[in-house]
Amino acid sequence: MITLPMIGVEVSILLMVFIGFAVGILSGFIGVGGGYLMTPALIILGLPANIAVGTSMAWIVGNSIVGTIRHRQLGNIDIKLGLVMIAGTICGVEVGVRLLNLIKNTGFADAIILSVLIIMLIAIGIPTFREVRERKAHLDKALKNKARLPPAKRSSSIGRRLQGLNIPPVIRFAKSRLTISLWPILAIGFVTGILAGFVGVGGGFIILPSLIYLIGLPSFLAVGTGLFQIIFSASFGCIRHTMSGNVIISIAFLMLLGSSVGTQLGALITQYVRGISMRYVLVISILLCVIGSILKLIDLLLPAPTPWLQEGALAITFGGMGLVVIMIAGLFIMAIRYRQGLPVPAWVVSLVAKDD
Predict the structure, then answer these.
(1) Which of these, 101, 118, 109, lies nearest to 37 by C-alpha position?
(2) Which pLDDT score, from 0 to 100, does residue 356 have?
(3) Could you give the CA distance from residue 318 to residue 182 in angstroms, rounded to a whole number?
(4) Does residue 231 contact residue 65 with C-beta atoms inside 8 Å?
(5) At 274, phi and psi to the nearest 5?
(6) Is the bond preceding residue 303 a cis peptide, omega within 30 degrees?
(7) Which residues lie across from 3 on neighbouring strands?
(8) Which of 149, 155, 181, 210 has the most Cβ atoms closer than 10 angstroms to its Cβ?
(9) Rounded mean pLDDT of 36-53?
(10) How far apart (Å, rounded) are the C-alpha atoms in residues 207 and 194?
């Protein structure tokens, strides 16, 4: 155990390493910073919201660097697109940090942060779940009829309209084979930055679907490019939160020990599955995080602490992390078996057959 006298909380060293490892695998696999899981997990463990946000942001910096290095080796990053997004993201981070500093001494910071996270996760999770379910049904039907698998989904109807905007400057991204106006990219970066600074997320759970459905990137490029730009936004956010006294470096370091291994594994496994697998895991992780966060939020709003709510939040949050690790490992094993011509369950074929 390690005691944090400045906030009167005691945490397990092994638990911190496990959290880093589990969220690291998820981060490398689906291209998110992991803060949307990390921040509520730290709040559930008893850290004040501002400390949870700042420490999560510090961890995201190191974790994103590890993941980006691996995705760079795999050719999954459009550096030019990532750099363009950074301008909007950093402006948003500054706004988010200032908002957090305004509420951290009100006594309601924990509830506000959890509420914002829950709303944003639901807003992202529901449409992503619908798309993934429809996409998998389409792939399953094509496999059943022995038809050629359709190409990766590149954008939604809203995305096609955004890509059709000719508001100057219009930029060509050769790596992504994409031509689009600068302004939608900056807008996505700005919104992501506000969330990063305010609730301690890298913003990947918004960046990933935004890059796929609004900008039109393939899943693999969206994963790597998202992690690449998170390095810069998280670094700026970490500096600002450190200046505000919101970071506990020892906790961030312990979590980074686990994620330095987990992120590498998650990034490697992306080469063995279709892009829909990443979105499936994203949706499930969002669902588990929402349930755990709602239980903790109810506990915070009640006049007296309720043990079963706290225990339920702990069980769902950390049990969910273990479940996500098992799911990703299972997809990897099924992909290897499929490539070797060994039998795999019919429902899993559309998740691992060829690259998306």
Answers:
(1) 118
(2) 44
(3) 40
(4) yes
(5) -80, 160
(6) no
(7) 10
(8) 210
(9) 82
(10) 13
Q: What is the pLDDT of residue 268?
A: 83
Model confidence over 91-108: pLDDT tens digits?
A: 888 888 888 888 877 777
For 50, 53, 55, 124, 236, the CA distances from 90, given in Å and listed in that order, are: 19, 16, 18, 22, 7
- Nearest residue to 60 (alpha-carbon basis) of 190, 207, 230: 230
What does the alpha-carbon distance between residue 192 and residue 182 come to, in Å, rounded to a whole number?
A: 16
Backbone conformation region of residue 279, classed left if phi is above 0, alpha if psi is from -120 to 50, else beta: alpha
Q: Is the pTM of this model over 0.85?
A: no
Convert the pLDDT of each residue in 305-316 to its tens digit.
788 888 888 888
**Cross-strand pairs, 178:** 173
Q: Give me the sign of the Cα torsion angle 269, 41, 200, 249.
A: negative
Q: Residue 130, class by beta-carbon neighbours within 10 Å (0-12 exposed, 13-18 middle, 19+ buried)? A: exposed
Q: Which residues contact 87 (CB under 8 A, 6 or more apart)?
A: 186, 189
Domain count within the chain: 1
Domain of residue 324: give its range: 2-352
Tokens of 243: 């200046």
